[in-house]
Amino acid sequence: MALEVHNLSDKPLHFEEALHTYFAVADIRQVSVAGLEGTTYVDKTEAGSRKQAPERIRIARETDQVHLNTTSRCEIDDPAGHRVISVEKEGSNATVVWNPWIEKNRSMADMAPDDWQTMLCVETANALDNAVELPGGGVHIMGTTISVADDHS
């Protein structure tokens, strides 16, 4: 999947972008995300404070993280679903990890009350510090390749 932006102007274009990939998981409490170890991220649930990512990201509350300066492939380990989802990216320098958890999910009209338990977003992005500055006449392509493998457990 790819998003292609053409700046038809002769002036620079400054923008942010994200491919909002919502993954179905068996149980969010068992899921972990690898590939963002040690990255700096903006925690949008804590007034935009900047933090360092742990070895693996685990979801135990509302999560809205923008991981900066990373081109790494991420792997979503879904042990209850017996699979690993791989998210590879191109033209992207940020990764968003998001789950609304209980309270925020209740206020979302497009999600059923318990949907937070079986979903996780790991988004290919260019946001915040990694927004794109596209010169006049320029083209920018951001893409992601998603694959799924059995975890053989």
In short:
With 153 residues, the chain is mainly beta.
Protein topology:
Layout: E1 2-6, E2 13-15, E3 17-19, E4 22-24, E5 32-34, E6 40-43, E7 49-52, E8 57-58, E9 63-67, E10 74-78, E11 83-90, E12 94-99, H1 101-106, E13 119-126, E14 132-134, E15 139-150
Antiparallel strand pairs: 1-15, 2-14, 3-13, 4-13, 5-8, 5-10, 6-7, 6-9, 9-12, 10-11, 11-15, 12-13
Shape: globular
Total beta strand runs: 15
Largest sheet: 7 strands, antiparallel
Cα distance spanning the termini: 30 Å
What this model shows, in words?
The chain is mainly beta. It has a single domain (2-150), classed as Beta-galactosidase, Chain A, domain 5. Helices cover 4% and strands 48% of the residues. The protein is built from one helix and 15 strands. The strands form three sheets. Strands 3, 4, 6, 7, 9, 12 and 13 form a seven-stranded antiparallel sheet that branches. Strands 1-15-11-10-5-8 form a six-stranded antiparallel sheet, with no helix packed on it. The radius of gyration is 16 Å and the shape is globular. The two termini are 30 Å apart.
Observed structural traits:
mainly beta, 15 strands, 1 helix, 6-stranded antiparallel sheet, 153 residues, 7-stranded antiparallel sheet, Beta-galactosidase, Chain A, domain 5
